[in-house]
Amino acid sequence: MQFFHFGLMPYPYIPDGSEIESTWVTLSNKYYDPKIGHRLYNEYLDQAVLAERLGYDGTCVNEHHQNAYGTMPDPNVMASHIVARTKEIHVGIIGNALPLHGNPLRVAESVAMLDVISGGRIISGFVRGTGMEYHSMRSNPATSRERFWEAHDLIVKAWTEPGPFDWQGKYFDIPYVNTWPRPFQQPHPPIWLPGQGSFETIREAAKRRYPFMMVFAPLGFTKLNYDMYRRAAEEFGYEPAPEQLAFCVGTYVAETDEKAHAEAKEHIMWLFHTGLKTPEQYFFPPGYTSGASLRGMLRGRDKFNIKPFWELSYEDLIEQQYMIVGSPATVAEKLAIYTDELGAGIHVAGGMQVGTMPHWKVVKNMTLFAEEVMPHFRPPGNQPAWKRGVPVPGTPASLRTRTAPAVA
Which residues pair with 192 in a beta bridge? Predict the structure, then answer.
């Protein structure tokens, strides 16, 4: 299994979730103090840099808009700081929300720049963005999926085919596509698709052999979606490898189970009861989710008793494994369910910063996870993939090197 650090970079100095409608869209930015934000950003960046020193396989950033849950409206800016302060660790942008960008070539250029500057350390995740983003950015959710795939196809072609060429699509009309620079990794950086269980995303990920990542989902629902990925892969003529199945489940590790729960509980409750508090009309705007996917999600909700995050007790969150909390032995035992029973090969959010968690606790959490949990899933020596020469998940099998493009 490969392990990726991930921090949401929240701004937790806001009213309690019981006092506000949502942390997204409508929460006034009057609560944001830039001086506190300056400290938080630098602590979060220090944590990403620490991930390299501790031997994580990668560190990740993402994109969200107009909220206190995750203050990364531009993940490429955050990735650039991490790239500049690290030497070997992979940096996963998971990911750029393609339908929210007016011109996909801006994403192609930014990611290619980062890949060249880093010497081929970028993972390029692509997402549609949450439903809340479509309220904040005034984007049409009904055309989101079509815009996403056209933007994706344009970016991949811009990375892999010599320009200039003409692109005439339904949403983008660009007569001269000629992206400079080209990515360092050839034919392009590994592409990941994070998601929440839509049938279309899972099927397309399997079709293109992209790693698919479930985010903040209970164990049973994650298994259901992995099975869907495997069935789709079988239709396309192959059996997926473990490194094509990722899960984003936060962990907190302390010396004992009792101490871990005592130290983590208040921060986990902030994440799920305040940071993720979102009315369903924000989460699922009309047209954002297809009828087939919505029916599948509702069936999964009934089957696995899935409730809104802010209605779950702490005991519910732990029992359903939205978070894994405990001693190193307990955390390793629960992670083994994902590898042994679900066949996953990528864990994202080990030792993560959670909600209101102070920096010292994050450092402790990351360190214990790296030193006492990761060795259970690695060869002797506990070295990260980038030291062992193991390719990053999502790299095409025939091109698993950090080779810069040839000069004609």
Answer: 125
Q: What's the token pair of residue 303?
A: 């089957």
Check residue 323 and report its DSSP letter.
Answer: E
Full set of structural domains in the chain with CATH: 2-396 (3.20.20.30)
Residues 191 and 108 sit within 8 Å (Cβ to Cβ): no
Residues in the chain: 408
pLDDT (tens digit, 9 = 90+) per residue, 180-239? 999 999 999 999 999 988 899 999 999 999 999 999 999 999 999 999 999 999 999 999
Dump pLDDT digits (tens) for 59-83.
999 999 999 999 999 999 999 999 9
pLDDT of residue 408: 46
Task: Tell me the pairing of strands 165-168 and 2-6.
Answer: unpaired
Residues 6+ apart with CB under 8 A from 12: 68, 270, 274, 275, 355, 356
Q: Name the residue with tokens 């006034």.
A: 28
Q: Could you give the CA distance from residue 191 to residue 195 in angstroms, rounded to a whole number?
A: 13
Sign of CA pseudo-dihedral 308, 204, 61, 365: positive
Compute the distance between CA of residue 253 and CA of residue 371 in angstroms, rounded to an integer.
11
Helix (H, G, I), strand (E, B) or coil at 118: helix
Nearest CA-CA partner of 158 in 108, 91, 212, 211: 108
DSSP H stretches of helix in 179-310: 199-208, 219-235, 257-270, 280-283, 291-303
Please give the full DSSP string across 175-215, using - where no structure is assigned. EEE--SSPPSSSS---EEEEESS-HHHHHHHHHHT--EEEE
What does each C-alpha distance from 80 to 115, 189, 252, 311, 399 come to in angstroms?
Answer: 10, 15, 27, 37, 25
Nearest to 100 by CA among 130, 77, 80: 130
pLDDT of residue 400 exceeding 90, the answer is no
Distance CA 105, CA 110 (A): 8
Report cis status (omega within 30 of 0) of the bond before 169.
no
Residues 6 or more apart in contact with residue 155 via CB below 8 angstroms: 98, 104, 105, 107, 108, 111, 126
Question: pTM higher than 0.90 for the full model?
Answer: yes
